[in-house]
């Protein structure tokens, strides 16, 4: 019985490592600094005609390594970096 458990444990660890490698191969970390302008993903989108991204908002604080505090409607809102992208100004 112990041998079966050890075999299963070994296979689980191998599967976990394969999943991590596949994820790490395609992940692109966003580099955000203080006072950057960002767009926030529209999570309350009701139909396909509403915009996917809202903003632009200013970054006022970076909490831990994945959360960012932005100013939205004169309120401080904490957002995960996965829901943000950098705002690019249109060339004039």
UniProtKB/TrEMBL annotation:
| UniProt cross-references to Gene3D superfamilies, sorted A to Z | 2.30.30.850
- Name of the protein: Zinc finger BED domain-containing protein 1-like
* Record lineage: Eukaryota, Metazoa, Ecdysozoa, Arthropoda, Hexapoda
